Automatic annotation (TrEMBL), chains A, B, C, D, E, F:
The keyword Methyltransferase does not apply. Residues 246-285 are annotated as: Disordered. The keyword Manganese applies. This is Mn-containing catalase. It comes from the Bacteria.
Length: 285, 285, 285, 285, 285, 285
């Protein structure tokens, strides 16, 4: 179960509120690279963890709980960037508005546009659980497969795309408060990338975990095709050479090679449509 | 651009058509662990690839193109498992039907239920791009971040959850044709897991790629908190020890340690609602 | 604006309530082939209709309004099929339940399963605006393009897939009341297919409407490639001959022919990633 | 069944067409606070209504039918605000365009941006059933639970968020026609808020309806915890006092009190993964 | 920020694991009536709360934090109901399986079907954030409008549909452990319904809060139509009388009456399509 | 199975990169009128095709394969339009930025806004499979009904809305490279419209295919109502006359006529709620 402290994990300050930036921040809340995703991914991995030990469940709960605090920080940052954003439009027409903006140094409509309206219309100047395009976060992005190695790679993927996004948001602002907040959140992403890779290492690294799942006997897979790069160039030109085209495979259990892809199957012929299946009579034959 | 051969990459045979299994196969077509996802993930990573070399673009195109053929194999397998599935219901009531099924050895309604109706109602006994619950695949699951290392981990995650699913589907059937098809597809997943990890190794492994993105100067991140495991147990009890709680970090650029999480920020106080923002008067104050 | 009559457009009777059939009926309410879709497609086409005449707007309103009554009929049919469906489970375990069902002629859990739970859990034994898999209807399926010919073909598509579904649902029941309801709704689909094609004919048929939009000067399109079937077989084998491979095009403005697809462009080379774009340093070059 | 009149329920006039405002109006059509939602929520509540009387079914049909006319008014308002919006771009580059706009008093691209493209690209200058971010309305927002009191509160929620949105849209325009339309629609929301609360009062108010559902015997709920505010502050600091922390509960069936949340359960220990479940061998133990 | 205790808020025990019931429980996790929804609805209302006092923010945080623990309890209950569920299918065909089930008292395929596959295929026998149809929860259901009275009604709606669902799930099981868990969760829903209504009372009840938002001057709404029930029966027959057709309105600011709906507007005439707008030439006129 | 050539089907050149136009192009990639949709619609129609001949399967594969190359061209065009788009913001505040833009001829923030952020934040300046509002493509738009005539009309609908979109995108740019690309893609849409109508003609045209499905015996549909236009005007005023109100129906199997819609059914009366169904006691009666 869970507890809260009404203070934030790390300070959130905004010197110059910027409604356009508020909108950009939404990507880090409700984007697929964002904090709702990692919080719930770690929670569901913890709550469903099956293993001889509760160690991984426990570890995941620590980090999932931390991430709730990150959503909170970002939601606070969005609201602060919307302070003083306009709720009213004085001007009658768009063309006038933009001229007025340049002449008079203010342009409420332009700022409303910058917000893309939703913060004005739906939330009363606060964050909502959607990305910067307003697409609501959907929970199909919570990856929890029941296989701990697969889940760790899902987590590395989430924290890697997450830190990429965070650095882009750092670069997209000059506000000192926002940059300080990001310097903290980017640091946490650094740690979390390492953390999930450390689990892989603890499980034995490539040799100990691959191929995932390692509990499926490899003799049941088709061993003619499990370490080949299939080339699909229509003219048969070879693919670029790389670590994946020759040498020992990463798991030490095979040798990489290149194979030109060729059909091994036949053209499939399905039965004709049956009389009462809603097809055209021409399909029933 | 692209070409086709009307034959399949690998033979698809079904000895005993099973409409329930057809439904399960949908997960491998339109589930988040499925083949549409990897095909388009690799295509979009290829088409947007920015690097001094086209090598990675090229490699991704080979594998993306192969994956289209996997969707085709699975769609064929679904249609074949639906051969002879019922399109009509002779019985008037559900209770009768189930009794009849046991008595007479046939139960059209039960099989219709097994299919969960959609293959009957929407496709005329063919596959559709949705998972085994009928939830359509949505393209937000195509991860292509513009950072090649992040993308490779997204790909490892996709192929790992994909192979986990494939082995579950192997175990869920006794049909020799289906098991042969899976032995091939599972082998391909083995290769693809290795392939994306091989790119990481070629890029320099942990030290060469972490933290992702490695182009953001680490001195801009808060270096007090970038290699710490934050513990959130309310009673301050320590987290379980692991590779991630002490020793050198995976990238060799820091030392893991444990920190008890404490609020560093304050309770956030947002401004009151403004008069014309659609709030209650009690909020305006 | 709109009015209602609390009576139904056509009688809805159910002799033998069947919760499994209730679930199947959902496809005709909230499926992409269903009645919510056509009602709102015609409404939005009407409300946005731009033409020198209000004739089409008016016609569309008549039919859209009729369709609301069809949703109502189907929602009523779902509720009636759920009369007497179980709300409680007396048995402790699934294995017992199914044995009991066969022995005693009743099987509440089996019927609960047949309903797939949602009618029990979410609606209190009534219809909801989702398909037979429980996927909610989403309004991106309302096609209204601003081009009347395109819209008419969208409508033919909707009524064709709709009538296909309706005949499948007719075949899936033996209940006389349900079959009578479907005999009416199938008849209406027959009319509506004709109706939208009649608009095409009134607009001048193929010659008068194609290519859609016919207001774009055809000399602006690349006239080397506007009536060719492009063949993509990797081995250059010719495509099957058909009405579309030779002879006059449907609009009488060109001649069909076959062309083997070949790349006319080059391999695209995008610029390398820029330093502050969140890429790996290896991509920046 | 349903009828239409091709005239609008209330006049819709636009003095100064404004494509940015057209986009904002979309929120009132296809947003979760919008008119499609209330129309269909009331329809599905009516069509599935189970009660000894058809009174509530009947009442709901009156209001649902009215709401279709509101969608129509708003769709008309969107189209009128798009009159004369640009369909073409004369300028080559964005920087030039904005300068040109200020200099010459026109800025087609800026206006295109204001529309966020969709009204231009997808609808031919007309409304579509999506919110102001272009997210299509999805019918999971149609709340119809089979419990009339729960449904009435869902309706109050819908009309409250709806009127909040409507007043924000009123404030966001100075167009007299648009403000007149909103003065009508805001008035209707006022009525509808009252209407659903009036049903609650008719059902007996708090004492007659709470806790919802009131048909579940309260002795089956855990009576130690049904009127307590659970405090979750990690340091045990008390929550703020309010109407909900002491005194008689709203339904008169209990007394409010405050309880500090403490775990009453244990750490859950799930079984280890089974050998053929697709887990890593390390999880099988 | 947040803390956790690895123990559960309340004990979760399952005597007879039942994979069908596991699937039903998903509705309480990821359904629109479920716990993810309330947790995040309260969090976003708290994080965006604007008022002269932080009292409501604080209260909301207590309850949101409690709800995370409820998701955890339900996720645990799902996993426990999946203990011993089959991961393998021994039988070749469906018809055989059901006969075997009755004869031998076991029916793995039937149970697999009961689970509808997803718990087997995607999670390794654990919960996932979707409803009982497998539709992922999407965050557009997090209602936080910036108006505290509207939000409180959204919360009453959520807790009312939530308790309705909870009592249905209580009735759908005989497992003593599950019923004990539900007796607790149902009690908490009782409290939370009261809690949000208590806020409304503290704000002044109907008179103090209606119409929502109460900060919009009522003289700006069309006062001819703000307390009328609009009747839409095509034949002009009167609507049923009720609390909402006569007498003082709930807010004491108007009198209810009935008005027969009549068009006050005209048939809308949009301009014809413009030449370069992608319409048919027939629309351009 | 499939092959690729790393060159493009047709050249893609951009003279003046324009990030706003990049965003608009997304509609042709991931919009419902776009290329992902047609590619996969044709693939799923091919893979599930049931007929006495493989001719249609084969033809569909040719065109589906071509369409993958169109997605590739558009993804390339998006990336090229994002070359040199800003990744950084130098200015502190929005008001300053717009003034600076006009004064100095550059306006990074404005351009960032034009992109609506996602290309910057999520993709590193590349395309993604979503429409111009950032709504991800969802595969429920892949129409493949198992009825070849219905599918052909779905394809005509897709290519018609697709070509309408393409001409709007042609009009929205002055870039010679972009216009040349569109002249090619518009030509292909011309062909594909004809191609699917040619299949209808080959199947026998209206008489040979209507009503769809033509395999359902028309004597089973209610023959009183299968060629009538139902008029729903509340005052009984007649609908506008057109090809669909009199004369022979399109299929030659009936005569069009007009019927004033009247209720033929009764007010539906559902049973009251049952005691344990989660209703209010007032509904149980």
């Amino acid at each position: 179960m869970y507890y809260h402290d009404k203070r934030l994990q790390y300070p959130v300050k905004v010197e110059s509120p910027d409604p356009v930036y508020a909108r950009m921040l939404q990507q880090a809340i409700g984007g697929i690279e964002g904090e709702i995703r990692v919080a719930f991914q770690y929670f569901f991995q913890a709550w469903g963890n099956r293993a001889p030990t509760t160690k991984y469940r426990d570890m995941l709960l620590h980090t999932a709980t931390e991430e709730i605090g990150h959503i909170e920080m970002l939601a606070t940052a969005v609201a602060m960037n919307l302070e003083n954003a306009p709720t009213k439009v004085q001007e009658a027409g768009a063309a006038d508005a933009i001229v007025g903006a340049v002449m008079g140094g203010e342009n409420p409509r332009h700022m409303v546009e910058g917000m893309l309206h939703r913060h004005l219309l739906s939330t009363g100047m606060a964050a909502f659980p959607a990305n910067c395009d307003g697409v609501p976060f959907d929970m199909s992005h919570i990856y929890a497969s029941g296989n701990i190695a697969a889940d760790m790679y899902c987590n590395v993927a989430a924290e890697s795309t997450g830190r990429v996004l965070a650095t882009r948001l750092y670069n997209a602002t000059n506000d000192p408060g926002m940059r300080d907040m990001w310097s903290f959140l980017i640091a946490r992403d650094t740690m979390h990338q390492q953390q999930w890779l450390a689990v892989i290492e603890e499980l034995g690294g490539d040799a100990g975990t691959l191929p995932i799942p390692n509990s499926f006997p490899q003799e049941k897979e088709n061993q003619k095709f499990n370490y080949n790069f299939f080339a699909t160039a229509a003219d048969g030109s070879p693919p670029p050479a790389g670590r994946w085209t020759e040498g020992a495979a990463m798991d030490g259990k095979g040798q990489f090679s290149v194979v030109q892809n060729q059909p091994m199957g036949e053209e499939p012929v399905l039965g004709p449509a049956r009389p009462d299946s809603g097809a055209e009579t021409q399909q029933i034959g």
